[in-house]
Amino acid sequence: MLVIDNYEDLSRFRAKLGDKRIGFVPTMGALHRGHLHLAETSLANCDVTIVSIWVNPRQFNDKEDFEKYPRNFDEDIKKLRQLGVDLVFIPKSEEELYKAPKIKEESRNLNGLDQPLEGLFRSGHFDAVVEVVYRLFCTVKPSVAFFGKKDFQQFRIIEHFSSNNNLGIDIIGLETIREESGLAMSSRNERLSADERQAASGIYSTLQWMKSEWKSDECSVDEIKEAASKRLRAIPGLKSIDYLEVVSEASLNPIKKGSSNPARAFIAVYFGPVRLIDNLSLNN
Ligand code: AMP
Q1: What pLDDT does 284 receive?
Q2: Which listed site, 14, 88, 225, 248, has its alpha carbon 20 to 30 Å from 25?
């Protein structure tokens, strides 16, 4: 596996690949089974698999979250090598990323997908995500890029951005990989105590409960949300709730029960200083 830390070497490598089917998995490292599932899916479906690792300071709103974000580059390289990934791009500086072209102003329109949910709590977050993913796309020039539905809003935004700008890249969203307890795998879980990690599985059980209520005819969306918030607040160690929402998967706008459009429940909460997010389809 090649480990490349600069724009020029990556561009040279990419130029030699011609029209091979290139699969790309952008990450922030501290790799767990969720990330590895994306890389494995790429390996199974593409001729060449490229993974990037960049802890993007511009997409963090909280300085402490950025500073404490786990970084295990040596371990990450080992894991990717074992899988058989062809190349990992770990830019040595922001400059290496931003040598690729900038997004044109008129291409930035995210059709409001960046406004609700995370957008209400992390101002500028998705602009920074889209900017870095676009630069990576321009450098890697993948045929397919793999994203986790763990960050469903991010996946929808990139899917919209790519098709809206005719980037010619298939954006594939893969299901969330969970710990045995149901807790969605996340690099941030490493910052939880053993007790908090156990208790945090209550996020997923709340989502599952919302799904069963969504299927029954009894409660309205507001009643489901209220009862689900109560369940969340009863989880030991849970400090606060940023949001608990039910929205349309396509538009990320509020959705009513009985709608024929697919619906998804989203939760963002704090355990101590650690912010966790999760979501679940309510339809299948
Ligand atoms: P991150 O390193 O957190 O930026 O994540 C890199 C990619 O891995 C994103 O597309 C995430 O949605 C995806 N990802 C993170 N956690 C999981 C998970 N538990 N299951 C599936 N994909 C995940």
Answers
A1: 80
A2: 248
